[in-house]
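Working notes for the structural subgroup meeting. M.R. asked for a predicted model of this chain before we commit to crystallization trials. I am recording the input and output together here so anyone reviewing the notebook later can reproduce the run.

Input as submitted:
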Amino acid sequence: MKKFVEFWNRIYYSLYSFHYFVGHFIVGKMAEVLLLRPIYAIPLVKRRLTNFGITWEGMLKTCNDFVENRKDSRLMGIVNVSITYVLYGIEFYVFVVLWLIFGDHLLSIIFDNLKLFCIISGGLCILFCQFTIWKNNQYLKYFRKFDKESLKKRIVWCIGTQLFCVALAVGCYFICKMNCR
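Returned structure, recorded in token form:
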């Protein structure tokens, strides 16, 4: 069970690393270069901000807080949605296997109670994440452990997780396209 929890925390860490890279280095730097620097270069704006006690470093800190705080930030919300998406995709594949085994009878039961099925599936995903990742912020312990690993290993895991997510989306699309005519 401990290896299983560590595996899911590694997936969570890989999703976080990808979103951190995209959010910090791409969006954050673009916001700094395209938005903050031109605004702060205007003397009137700079004087007004200085009167309110806002410095250039303070503006950059506010911009970077989007991704820096691991415990409570908007980035962690995006990562939480991503891990739930991964679990929904896996549930979808389990559903397809059950559908292939039990046939159209299972499909008619699910579609008759689609809202209930979606609520139960979402609840199972959230409960699974609660007990394997979010409970007592145990992911922070795994994050510290994974931060000590080599950069190459972290990059391989990050790319592998993103390729798995893309394969999951493409597979779901083609299964739906082939069977929902």
